[in-house]
Structures are given as C-alpha cells and as structure tokens.
Design a protein that fits this description.
The complex is a heterodimer of chains A (114) and B (112).
Chain A: E1 5-7, E2 10-13, E3 19-24, E4 31-37, E5 44-50, E6 53-56, E7 65-68, E8 75-79, E9 88-95, E10 104-105, E11 109-113
Parallel strand pairs in A: 2-11
Antiparallel strand pairs in A: 1-3, 3-8, 4-5, 4-9, 5-6, 7-8, 9-10, 9-11
Chain B: E1 4-6, E2 9-13, E3 18-23, E4 28-36, E5 43-49, E6 53-57, E7 60-65, E8 70-75, E9 84-92, E10 101-102, E11 106-111
Parallel strand pairs in B: 2-11
Antiparallel strand pairs in B: 1-3, 3-8, 4-5, 4-9, 6-7, 7-8, 9-10, 9-11
Classes of the chains: A mainly beta (114), B mainly beta (112).
Chain lengths: 114, 112
C-alpha cells in the first residue's frame, strides 16, 4: 500500500482481556517497528523486526506483550491480560532497511483498557 | 538511554528562527528528527549519520556533532505549518541493535 496501515484505529477493551493490533507496512520495507506513545510523551520503543525475526525485543515491558511477523510483511502485536496501564497509542513504523533509513509511521491504534 | 531535548517548548512569530537541541550520554550511530502534529503520526524529517554531518531541505536543517553526542535542528523563517512537536531519536553506536530511542519532544508553536 501507499502507507503504513494499522487496524483497528481504536480499541476499547476490558481489563484482563486479550487484544491483537495489526500493522501492514509499506510494500518492500524489510524493517518494522512497534512503539507506544502516551499523552505528552515521545514514542517508547517496544520491538523491531528485520524480515521475519525480532532483531530487538528489549522494549517489551513484560511477558504479556508479544509480537510476530511470520511472513516478513504484516505484523501483529498481542497483549494478554490487559491492564489499565496498557492504555496508549500503539504506533507501527516501517523502513526500507535498518540503520540509515527514516521511518514511515502509521496512524496508530488507540488502545483504551477500562 | 533517552536523549534530552531542549527547549521543552517554544513560541515563535511567523518568520522567526528556532533551534532545537538533542543530546545523549552515549556514543551515537545516528540521529533522526520527526515532527508530529496533534492527533497525527510522527513524520520523518531527516537522518544524520555518525561522521558528523549537516543536512537540510527547504528552511529546515540539522547538524550532528558526533564528538559531543549532540544534534541541533534549525528552523529558519518559520511558517505556521511548522507548528507541532519535534522529536529527536538516537541510535547508539556499538549496541548491536538499531533501536531508535526518542526524546520527550519540543513543542513548537508558530503564531501569526
């Protein structure tokens, strides 16, 4: 597609439920990144993929968070047993490669845990 | 380690210039700059790689001082469209990862 697509754009879930957030990167972009952003803060790194493999998952806050990119294109961020503190905008970005390339961000998924 | 941005906020009149600074306590491989408008995604402005360089397009340019682990974004003859929050992001050198860590942002408001 022309840009990075994230679905859903908004998600309201009850505390304790499981959610999946989807990211469809720009075609041909081998690197994919997940960030989350709280109001008034900069994006906080979660994980990035180079191809199908997670190159760095050190930003995932705990084992309730998991992300996959099985075919090297679409990625899914999975959050188990959601907590109110997980509420944030989850941003996905992609780039043509790693290192010397800027990122194109999607519009984000606003997750609200009630 | 999160880079430190200054100032936190700045208000400009149209046509005025501004400088936004970004500093790190770690040796850097690269510095990214993004602009985010309220309710929108961050938009890539430019990337500077170690080796020390300057870049620019239109009236927005940036410098990267590798030795000082600092970068500055220069906005000249500001326009209303420049309003937004500017984020620098840094990739540490020798970390074995291209993890990009963002600062807390600088909110720029341009008024008529």
């Amino acid at each position: 597609g022309a840009g990075v697509s994230q679905t859903p754009s908004n998600k309201v879930t009850e505390k304790g439920k499981y959610v999946e957030l989807r990211c469809d990167p720009i075609s041909g972009h081998t690197a994919l990144y997940w960030y989350r952003q709280s109001l008034g803060q900069g994006p906080e790194f979660l994980i990035y993929f180079q191809g199908t493999g997670a190159a760095d998952d050190s930003g995932l806050p705990n084992d309730r968070f998991f992300a996959v990119r099985p075919e090297g294109s679409v990625s899914t961020l999975k959050i188990q047993r959601t907590e109110r503190g997980d509420s944030a905008v989850y941003l996905c970005a992609s780039s043509i490669g790693t290192g010397a390339y800027g990122y194109t961000f999607g519009s984000g998924t606003r997750l609200t845990v009630v | 380690q999160q880079p430190v941005q200054s100032p936190q906020a700045v208000i400009l009149r149209e046509g005025e210039d501004a400088v936004i600074n970004c500093s790190s306590s770690k040796a850097l491989y690269s510095v990214h700059w993004y602009r985010q408008k309220h309710g929108e995604a961050p938009v890539f402005l430019m990337i500077l790689l170690k080796g020390g360089e300057q870049k620019g397009h239109d009236k927005i340019s940036a410098s990267f001082n590798e030795k000082k682990q600092q970068s500055s974004l220069y906005l000249t003859a500001s326009q209303l469209s420049y309003s937004g929050t500017y984020f620098c992001g840094t990739v540490n050198s020798g970390a074995g990862s291209y993890q990009l860590t963002f600062g807390k942002g600088t909110k720029l408001s341009v008024i008529p």
